Amino acid sequence: MELLTVDTVCDYVASQLGSHPEAPLDCSKLQAQEVTGGNLNYAFAVRDAKGHAVFVKQAPDFIKVIGPAAQLTRERMRLEVQVYQEWVDKGAEMSRYIPRIWKFDEEAMAFIMEFLGSSQLLQQSLFQGEAQETLAKSLGECMAIMHSRTHCSKLDAGGRARLAASYENRLLRDIQLEYVFSKCYREDPRAAMLREDSGFMTEVENLKAIYNGQNQENLSLCHGDLHAGSVMVDGAASSVKIIDPEFAVFGPPGLDVGSLLSTYVLAYCFHSAQKHSCCSQILFAAQQIWEAYVEAMKAAGISSDLLGTIEVETLGFIGCEVARTALGLAFARSLRIEDTELKARAEARALELGATCIRRRSEGMAALRAAILEFDAKE
Ligand SMILES: Nc1ncnc2c1ncn2[C@@H]1O[C@H](COP(=O)(O)OP(=O)(O)OP(=O)(O)O)[C@@H](O)[C@H]1O
Ligand SMILES: [Mg+2]
Asked: What local confidence, expressed as pLDDT, does residue 191 receive?
């Protein structure tokens, strides 16, 4: 199967959906546009004459933005589709938080999905200074459904073994191990102080081991890359949809909570450094996510002890994501401040904030409040 292009994707959609009884668009006259923004895969919006649309995503056997030199198995797409199915199988309520998949074509390693036309990435909203409370609560609840239904404490030995084997996801896990926990500290001159601090580097190694599944008593099926670039929101409809779970792992639930909260923290740093007025709204929304998550996890029977562990992990993973982004390894969520001096200062302060979250994570959310106070004090 060749890779799809804007010239071939319309015929492809017609061939896949033309005879579908509930096809969401009229396949007789279609137009396509490439959707840019993703790094790994090809994506297209395909529309009919009335504006009904679908989203098509195809995994090449390499990383799109690097090219064929960077080989990466196309099986990642099978896993992505499987995770969506797993979530719905485990909790029907999850269907409202994920886009509908119309067709998965294993031969092409492509899927055709509901087009979220009135949504935008949560990442965009946060950096525009919008953080709605209702969306935050939905996100907390959604993560709690994902994690509580697949938490190892709720599964028998067979269920745990199946999730561990199905979501080992070694290749993509190794990419995260390198890009979230290692590369930035090894190479960036701005990380010199951290690199030389063996106590700090031991803490990063500990978090890396936890990401890798070291704590066998606290594992859930996790999205695995749940920063705000993996969430699409429609403020007017109060709708939240989770996308792009190709990094899914049977791993520590705090990984997802920490990744999501890290974008709120980065957006806070971005706005606070520029004295924008939305800062308290962003922190409030972050707090709402955490509170809604805890409440729904408790209601689903996850013990207070486990929630204590998840809180500490969450702080660690917030710290890792904020630090690696401040060190330039996640451009889309970075502090894109025009004034270069202000930007450099804000990134240095964000790096410290991340390091504080990692070092003081045993204090839980209090560590985040302390790190934010430090960030603001260093202005
Ligand atoms: N169902 C959808 N409807 C409309 N737009 C979508 C939909 N799913 C994703 N998008 C848009 O397409 C972009 C790329 O999709 P996605 O993030 O899944 O691709 P990717 O190549 O796997 O990205 P990454 O490099 O983050 O792994 C998203 O950032 C989002 O803007
Ligand atoms: Mg992806």
From this structure: 96
